[in-house]
Write a structure and sequence with these properties.
Elements: E1 9-12, E2 18-27, H1 31-48, E3 62-71, E4 84-93, H2 95-105
Length: about 110
């Protein structure tokens, strides 16, 4: 699957737990596509690591956080909706989860 709107940065801690962080800022017309990609990632995680979502420090294999901020500058004179949606999506996991995530989504 191509992730056209989500460009993940990766970091990991000393225990090997990883974090994939993505930010997307789009006009309202593209917001549904961003959310569809977020949902596709979550669907994969829920399928590949079924029943294992929980905070890592509580024994989970993976977890995530999602925030959406809507900026409302108004409507342009042309009538086009100029609202922007800023999506922050973080997915964390154990080394096994991170390896599988990289392989599934073609991340190095």
């Amino acid at each position: 699957m191509n992730l056209d709107y989500l460009d993940f940065d990766y970091s990991e801690d000393a225990a090997g737990w990883g974090s994939f962080d993505a930010l997307a800022s789009t006009l309202a017309a593209h917001h549904p596509a961003v959310l569809a990609q977020v949902q596709a990632v979550l669907d994969w995680a829920n399928s590949a690591f079924a029943g294992q979502r929980a905070p890592l420090d509580e024994g989970g294999e993976w977890d995530h956080a999602l925030q959406v901020l809507r900026e409302r500058p108004g409507t342009a004179a042309s009538g086009v909706d100029t609202d922007r949606y800023n999506v922050s999506f973080v997915i964390t996991g154990t080394p096994a989860f991170c390896t599988a995530f990289r392989e599934r989504f073609g991340l190095c």
